[in-house]
Amino acid sequence: MTTTFEALGLDTRILQALAEEGYSIPTPIQAQSIPTVMEGRDLLGIAQTGTGKTAAFALPILHRLAQQKGRPPRFSCRVLVLSPTRELASQIAASLRAYGRHLGLSTAVVFGGVGFGPQRSALARGIDILVATPGRLQDLLDQGAGRLDQVGTLVLDEADQMLDKGFLPAIRRLLKAIPAERQTLFFSATMPAEINRLAAEMLTDPVRVAVAPVATTAERVAQRVIHVPAAGKRQVLAELLRMEGIGRTLVFSRTKHGADRIVKQLDQEGIAANAIHGNKAQNARERALAAFRDGSAPVLVATDIAARGIDVEGVTHVIQFDLPEVPETYVHRIGRTARAGASGEAIALCSHEDRDKLRAIERLIRQQIPAETRGGAAAPEPARAPAPPRPAAQPKPPRGAHKPARQPQHRPHGHAAPAEAPKPPRGGDQPRRRPAAEPPRRDRSWREGDFRDGTPAPAFLRRGR
């Protein structure tokens, strides 16, 4: 049954902003999450990227803040949203300002790579909604520039990456500074079992909203894998990017240095590309995203963490130069294309060393990805036939049971049994063992000066002379 934003009971000023943004019907994750968050309950939301998770928590939070009176506390905030990357933090803050433009609420964003001054000033005035990366926020708290004792709602966006990529220690420190009586919201595209267990520790009686199975890939994404030697990946990547129909393309690299090497190789091939990762300065990351959006550099090479904040329409292809270590990451990567009802293509480059990762991905998504071979790579191994079942083990006789008598062997008539070789008599002609040679005994009679074998006596034996 299709619902509307009006039916969800949102503030009329928020509805006005949504109409100005062109929103008419909530997505499934929004329709299921907004009523729960408005009630003040904890929530664990799982949905594919591009399905509207930001609005799913932003709209009900704005609605609840609009019902409150008074100014935000100085040096603190009412709502804290944690994000794994600067780009995603900026994107969330921009969405909050757009949805709440008629409410008069204050929103600030805090992340690394820029100066502390404006961020300290914003905290000093007091903020309704603070969007931050964990590292920079902890730095500000350590400097005494803010506190979190007035936070009533905590949001962890992209929770799988927040907890799985090394942010857990910083998050635990921040949780100690936030009141235990709070509303906590987890939103993520994937939720592996170990992350799900950790989320259960932080949430209190949460409502679970999952609009798609964790292992489901986008329906409009055409997937294929190219088997290629590791040394030939860059050449195959350049050939793919020169093909007709390749538009705005996102290339995934496993490491930051690998992303820089790929960009350098593409530049030598005459293909305009930029890299975005954690080692890049903030202004360099913003320039790379701007060139990606306007098409002046239609190829963007990114690591998984940096790509979490990339929300660019019209991405036609996602190429996985390196297959991910975690199979669930594959699902999130290809979700960067085929957004907003469009179609897209996902291509994975698989070397011989990546075969195990590919098998893990195919087990997760429960389908075999169409494959081809280039550059002299060995064809993928066919699926092995299942091993025949082992015969059932025979039960052992109970201890103490009598063994059956040994039956005599049947021999033809007239043939005698072969004679056994007689055993030699005990103690007969067996050679006697010689005792081991004993070491020469030393007479420790130091009265004669030395040992009898000529060895000088130790000094402590000579003291009596």
Automatic annotation (TrEMBL):
A motif (Q motif) lies at residues 3-31. Residues 370-382 have a biased composition (Low complexity). GO terms for molecular function: ATP binding; hydrolase activity; nucleic acid binding; RNA helicase activity. GO terms for cellular component: cytosol. InterPro entries: DEAD/DEAH_box_helicase_dom, DEAD/DEAH_RhlB, DEAD_box_RNA_helicase, Helicase_ATP-bd, Helicase_C-like, P-loop_NTPase, RNA_helicase_DEAD_Q_motif. It is an enzyme of class 3 (hydrolase). Keywords: ATP-binding, Helicase, Hydrolase, Nucleotide-binding. Residues 399-414 have a biased composition (Basic residues). Pfam families: DEAD, Helicase_C. Residues 235-381 form the Helicase C-terminal domain. Residues 429-453 have a biased composition (Basic and acidic residues). The keyword Protease does not apply. Belongs to the DEAD box helicase family. This is ATP-dependent RNA helicase RhlE. It comes from Neoroseomonas alkaliterrae.
